[in-house]
């Protein structure tokens, strides 16, 4: 089973990223053959950004992933921009990508609002994401709920490619966790938790200090009721139930049973304590890992070499069936 996932190096990683995705990456390490995880710096260039900050955030992200348990000895961990096959495959896949479909993507529509420049990269974002996965012929893609639409486009691209050029690419499946696939903002539980939220108060960062985490949970928006149970009119409490279930490896139903008689205030304290205990070891390991950028570059270099060897095989097949570049017989010793 080959596993692939990617994560953007923009901003600080939050509890939604951690519960929806990073935990799944760690769990996939020993199942994956191999499990491949990529910091997608090329995707981060699709909106306005600062180049020096992009490099720094890329180190932050890889150090966070390693602190959370990714071990470059047990998985393949690399930076997208180090492996040119991704960009090349993105271009080649454009030939089987429908413009109308890209135009309709929710993320494209949301991200296009209020921008001076809506870049072509923003429109092509899902094609590069498809290339990330298809280059490795990965079967499984662990992601949060917000990536479902991108995964559908990716599958469509792979199917269209195979129909047009013959069976070449693997059509991947998403792996969306049962609990915590969509962690909501603590201040506005009708919106997903994200780095771009209006208020920082609603977003819990993986590297937040324990006191900051407690404060954010204490102030979490709930409802005028008094029962710790899930429900359509109880977005805030439902979210806290999911968070507690996820970080304690329990289920929402078990959490509801355990806290059936609890008051909201006490329940929030329990959730805050559990999240603090869960994230504290990650924050502690992070500091050492982040301090050694040479070591992080060495992880990227080793990862890129392995990734490029795998992606290179797919690219050779894709070029061959598409009739691009010299035929295979003339390609010995060349890419
Ligand atoms: P990104 O960097 O926005 O998010 C990384 C992962 O975190 C998940 N996630 C959440 N899960 C639960 N609740 C939330 N509030 C929440 N917010 C984010 C996301 O679903 C994601 O799994 N386009 C991708 C990066 C990417 C990629 C790929 C993913 C590039 N190439 C190939 C998979 C395969 C993204 O922007 O993720």
Explain this structure.
There is one protein chain. The model has no long low-confidence stretch (mean pLDDT about 95). The chain has 12 helices and 5 strands. Helix 8 packs antiparallel against helix 11 (about 265-290). Helices cover about 50% and strands about 5% of the residues. The protein has helices at about 15-30, 50-65, 85-95, 100-105, 105-110, 120-135, 150-165, 210-220, 235-245, 250-260, 265-290, 295-320; strands at about 5, 35-40, 75-80, 140, 175. The chain has 2 domains: about 5-175 and about 295-335, Rossmann fold; about 210-290, Tyrosyl-Transfer RNA Synthetase (Orthogonal Bundle). The strands form 2 sheets. A 3-stranded parallel β-sheet has the order 1-2-3, with helices on both faces. It has about 325 residues and is mainly alpha-helical.
């Amino acid at each position: 089973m080959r596993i692939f996932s990617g994560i953007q190096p923009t901003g600080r990683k939050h509890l939604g990223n951690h519960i929806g995705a990073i935990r799944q990456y760690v769990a996939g390490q020993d199942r994956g053959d191999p499990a491949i995880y990529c910091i997608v710096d090329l995707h981060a260039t699709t909106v306005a950004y600062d180049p020096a900050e992009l490099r720094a955030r890329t180190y932050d992200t890889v150090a966070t992933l390693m602190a959370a348990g990714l071990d470059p000895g047990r998985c393949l961990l690399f930076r997208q921009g180090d492996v040119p096959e991704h960009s090349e495959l993105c271009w080649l896949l454009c030939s089987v990508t429908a413009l109308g479909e890209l135009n309709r993507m929710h993320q494209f529509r949301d991200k296009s609002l209020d921008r001076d420049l809506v870049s072509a990269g923003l429109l092509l974002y899902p094609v590069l994401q498809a290339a990330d996965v298809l280059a490795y012929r990965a079967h499984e893609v662990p992601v949060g709920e917000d990536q479902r639409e991108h995964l559908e486009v990716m599958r469509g691209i792979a199917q269209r490619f195979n129909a047009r050029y013959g069976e070449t690419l693997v059509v991947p499946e998403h792996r969306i966790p049962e609990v915590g696939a969509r962690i909501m903002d603590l201040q506005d539980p009708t919106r997903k938790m994200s780095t771009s939220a209006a208020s920082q108060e609603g977003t819990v960062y993986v590297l937040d200090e324990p006191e900051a985490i407690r404060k954010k949970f204490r102030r979490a928006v709930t409802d005028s009721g008094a029962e710790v149970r899930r429900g359509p009119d109880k977005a805030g409490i439902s979210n806290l139930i999911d968070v507690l279930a996820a970080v304690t490896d329990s289920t929402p139903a078990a959490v509801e049973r355990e806290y059936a008689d609890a008051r909201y205030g006490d329940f929030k304290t329990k959730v805050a304590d559990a999240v603090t205990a869960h994230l504290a070891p990650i924050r502690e390991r992070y500091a050492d890992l982040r301090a050694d950028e040479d070591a992080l570059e060495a992880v990227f270099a080793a990862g890129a070499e392995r990734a490029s060897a795998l992606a290179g095989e797919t690219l050779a097949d894709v070029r061959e069936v598409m009739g691009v570049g010299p035929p295979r017989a003339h390609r010995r010793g060349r890419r």
